[in-house]
Design brief:
single chain; mainly alpha; two-stranded antiparallel ribbon; 5 helices; 72% helix; elongated
Length: 155
């Protein structure tokens, strides 16, 4: 009788291991399927976004007189300008140049874009622009160092 109990126990243990293994395999399979589903959904979102960009660009010409759409296009333009400015600031901090044509990041010692081959805006030009932007009405005293024009001499 004791053998029968041990055999029954072993059979039950084997059944439990088989059930656990099947459930584990099912869980792994479900995880893989969920990952694939998430990847497909992400790809679809990217395609929709690209489609939306293209439709938006084509629509601008058609809808440019419609105030409702015009304000949305202006909002998009403002956000794109902020994105560009943030990307330039990040690239500056990383000591990189951003290609004006394709947006690729390049080392500062490159004269041409490593992605598309377009000439890169040299660092000196960018520094000059930054100085002009920063000193336009700033309080650093840089305008005081410039020679006064004829109007300021008369006053």
């Amino acid at each position: 009788m004791m053998n029968l109990n041990i055999d029954e126990i072993l059979d039950k243990a084997k059944e439990m291991v088989d059930v656990a293994a099947k459930k584990t395999n099912d869980a792994v399979e479900v995880s893989k399927l969920k990952f694939d589903l998430s990847k497909c959904q992400s790809e679809l979102r990217e395609i929709y976004q690209e489609l939306g960009k293209k439709v938006s660009l084509k629509s601008r010409k058609i809808l440019e007189d419609d105030v409702e759409y015009c304000s949305l296009f202006e909002e998009i333009d403002e956000i794109l300008e902020r994105i560009d400015a943030l990307n330039v600031t990040i690239a500056d901090r990383q000591n990189l140049l951003i290609c004006q044509r394709c947006g690729a990041k390049n080392r500062v010692d490159h004269l041409f874009c490593s992605q598309c081959g377009s000439p890169l805006k040299v660092r000196a030009e960018r520094e000059e622009e930054k100085q002009e932007e920063a000193c336009d009405g700033c309080s650093c005293g840089c305008s005081e160092n410039e020679e006064p024009n004829d109007e300021s001499k008369d006053q």
